[in-house]
């Protein structure tokens, strides 16, 4: 080694500790909003603390946990250089898995990994996560921000999160509660949500050659704005609905679509019959089908087709359930029923134009 050479440093290897510290300072304001009375301490510890004495009021509390990411939707955010909504998607994907069993989301932790930490970008992502937690009623009690130069490009990143919730054992929702004659209620999605983006991106970018700045008349906005529409968060409305009416099960309609997710809450010997004619899917699904010549079975096993959550309720409570969801600003309708069968989801009819 010559005298002109200097020792290796973390910064020279691509990791900027000072940028990470700056990112933490910028995100503190947003994290402070996403709290609950049970949170102990603040940002900066090695772990998040949550006062579990809340559980003392339960007869038999069951803890529920879920973890997820947002898939290749982050590629859209990266290309648009708009990072303050992807966190909403993350929270939605996690807490709406929790609420399926009737669990109230309590707290969430996140994991953010960047090729290069840009403090303002990190803060924007965390802002969306914090806003999602506020909407969901859970606390953001900790997380990790990592910088992985060489593994990710300088403008690449990914997000993941895990959340914990609680449900009274007697109130646990699921297949064991579902009965013949139950109504299947569909809750409208806000669009693609956070599933099927590999197929959507392939159709729009690779096959059609569209750019994110392309104005699409059918959407009434640009392709980028359509693809970055945040995932709807259903958890608070679903918890309220379960307290008000006889809900037997929920199904979060994510990857696998309606057939692949509603089937997960069906007991042996019962089938869910879902009438496509009960709704009109958002136009984005039609555009994908036409541009990519995507067959309907492929669409329906990839995308939510306009339904982000489904509730299986006692038939006599269906009307009250629809009224409550309407009050919460969620479009909902009776899409089908539970009948005797072989434990599958049967989609029939044609979508309304």
From TrEMBL:
GO molecular function list: ATP binding; phosphoribosylamine-glycine ligase activity; phosphoribosylformylglycinamidine cyclo-ligase activity
Top-level class of the enzyme under EC nomenclature: ligase
GO biological process, one term: 'de novo' IMP biosynthetic process
Residues annotated as domain PurM-like C-terminal: 179-343
Annotated Pfam families: AIRS (PF00586), AIRS_C (PF02769)
Family matches, as InterPro entries: PurM-like_C_dom, PurM-like_C_sf, PurM-like_N, PurM-like_N_sf, PurM_cligase
Subcellular compartments: Cytoplasm
EC numbers: 6.3.3.1
Pathway entry: Purine metabolism; IMP biosynthesis via de novo pathway; 5-amino-1-(5-phospho-D-ribosyl)imidazole from N(2)-formyl-N(1)-(5-phospho-D-ribosyl)glycinamide: step 2/2
Catalysed reactions, semicolon-separated: 2-formamido-N(1)-(5-O-phospho-beta-D-ribosyl)acetamidine + ATP = 5-amino-1-(5-phospho-beta-D-ribosyl)imidazole + ADP + phosphate + H(+)
Keyword terms, alphabetized: ATP-binding, Cytoplasm, Ligase, Nucleotide-binding, Purine biosynthesis
Gene Ontology CC annotations of this record: cytosol
Chain ranges of the PurM-like N-terminal domain: 63-167
SUPFAM superfamilies (alphabetical): PurM C-terminal domain-like (SSF56042), PurM N-terminal domain-like (SSF55326)
Stated family: Belongs to the AIR synthase family.
PANTHER family the UniProt entry points to: TRIFUNCTIONAL PURINE BIOSYNTHETIC PROTEIN ADENOSINE-3, TRIFUNCTIONAL PURINE BIOSYNTHETIC PROTEIN ADENOSINE-3-RELATED
Listed NCBIfam families: purM (TIGR00878)
Protein name: Phosphoribosylformylglycinamidine cyclo-ligase
Source organism of this protein record: Carbonactinospora thermoautotrophica
Classification of source organism: Bacteria, Bacillati, Actinomycetota, Actinomycetes, Kitasatosporales
